[in-house]
Amino acid sequence: MVITKVVELAPGALKAMLARAPAPITNALIERLFQQIFKADLAAGAFDFLSNRWVRIEVRDISLKFAISVQQLPQGAHFKVVSSTAHPDVFMRVDWSALLQLSTQQVDPDTLFFRRKLLLTGDTELGLQVKNLLDTIELRQRLPGPCYRLLANLAERTATVKSLT
Fold it and tell me: 25, 37, 52, 164: which one has the fewest Cβ atoms less than 10 Å from its Cβ?
């Protein structure tokens, strides 16, 4: 019962927090999170296709909007997150429930795309690279066990709540 309440309240709580947080702080947090979780992938060149290219991401129901790119710096590749970019190469829109399911690999990007839960527009080739990368990322190997289990449980419960409404 408690987890059901968390599932019901999480999007609203996240939306309220994001509305109050200054964009530079939110962006820095997202940038740091990506940098930490995908450190090895960045070093291996898995994100090089995003060098100087921008993907605009919108999580509709929590009003999270940002653009992300990879910059090649002397010390190596680094994610860059900004609130907006004039001309993103790819635009990705998803809701909180679908993002949780996608990030915990409970559903693949193609399924979300065909169910119209994941929107990808813009540069088709780059969009396919982003989609394929999303399909191969396993957060289970990158996050501490309790953190991953919490995300997976939220994703599962969120999907259940969404299917009942």
Answer: 164
CA 134 to chain centre: 9
At residue 91, the pLDDT reads 95
The overall longest dimension of the chain from CA atoms, in Å, is 51
Structure tokens at 8: 């019901």
Q: Are 65 and 88 spatial neighbours (Cβ–Cβ below 8 Å)?
A: no
Task: Name, in order, each residue with C-beta under 8 angstroms of 38's C-beta and a sequence gap of 6 or more.
Answer: 46, 47, 79, 137, 142
Give 136-149 pLDDT, tens digit per residue.
Answer: 878 888 888 888 88
Q: Strand 90-94 to strand 76-82: parallel, antiparallel, or no bridges (unpaired)?
A: unpaired
Q: What is residue 10's predicted lDDT score, i.e. its pLDDT?
A: 75
User: 37-43: long-range contacts at Cβ-Cβ below 8 A with a sequence spacing of 24 or more?
Assistant: 37/139, 37/142, 37/143, 38/79, 38/137, 38/142, 41/137, 42/70, 42/76, 42/77, 42/78, 42/79, 43/76, 43/77
Q: What is the pLDDT of residues 71-82, one digit of tens each?
A: 999 999 999 999
List the one residue out of 64, 38, 57, 60 whose CA is nearest residue 127.
57
